[in-house]
Amino acid sequence: MKDLLPMVDPNDVIFDGWDISSMNLADAMARAKVLDVQVQDQLRPYMEKMKPRPGIFDVEFVAANQTDRADNVIRGTKQEQLDQIRADIRQFHASSKVDKVIVLWTANTERFCDVLPGVHDTADNLLSAIANGHKEVSPSTIFAVASILEGCTYINGSPQNTFVPGVLELAEKKKVFIGGDDFKSGQTKFKSVLVDFLVSAGIKPVSMVSYNHLGNNDGKNLSSPLQFRSKEISKSNVVDDMVESNPILYSPQEKPDHCVVIKYVPYVGDSKRAMDEYTSEIMMGGHNTIVVHNTCEDSLLAAPIILDLFILAELCERIEFSISGSKFQQFHTVLSILSFLCKAPLVPPGAPVVNALFKQRSCIVNIMRACIGLAPINHMGIEHKAFYFLARRC
To answer: Which of 58, 181, 182, 241 is catalytic?
Structure first.
């Protein structure tokens, strides 16, 4: 894609960030046990110099089992935490001399916050709630607000409801882009493709059961019921638009049974095991069952998605378009173009949610084609089916 449009070279990116653990990145890399030891040895001289800035820790939003890592936290009120994050962004921007800053949440899954009237419903109410230290404002929402107030695109890579209505309104007021939610890497990406195929082929999925176990810190955090519920919602909604697209197979309000299980097994570390069973109804009362087993390094699937997200988001910051000769404008604040990379795509209010993977990819490709003056791709192939075109070729 970089051959079509000028895009950020990952080698030109400078990384910085926050973490509730003070461990330098070389030691954190060793603790994670993901990369080959020889690769770790090569990276250590660079990584050991990198130490995270203090982060925001609120045990009300993450699992209590994360407390033992929390030795690098911002003390004080929620307002003081917000002010510190903003100061960190400004300091990094100035010291690194980068052209722009994009903030991306890669931290642990939080529980869903209770969206309350007078607290989360408007930008002003949300800012007041932070100033008053309201307990139902999550750390990820504070990061989002700080990023928006500093004019930096903010992407949520976890499944919790960071983008409460007040955050969306604030982003629109400040004309800052936001995107999310939750990295779409392995099992969910496969599910979106398989179910799209089944429904499109007239095969009716009636039961989907997804089981996962993993032993990294993400799995440890998700062993807590409230944090798991956030992930369960994110994983379960991935097939909704595909089911609704076929009213012949599914009557209104009908959905397949869908169960998601995640278990913490420390021994397997980052090597995530995913097992899925898809049962579908076929002709004459028959059934078709597909069983899939997948083993992968969870972090190694997610890391490239992080790169893709901020590179694509940065490109979107520079795209402007005109409709029928009208004034040039940017995309809506909510970057739904990032849906291809997210389990629970965030879309502008009133816009349809698209989870089907190939439709999501086609959106990106066609927008890029439009930027260089090419027509969108369609699959009619009329030039290969009409006598007129075929005769002209001969």
So the answer is: 182
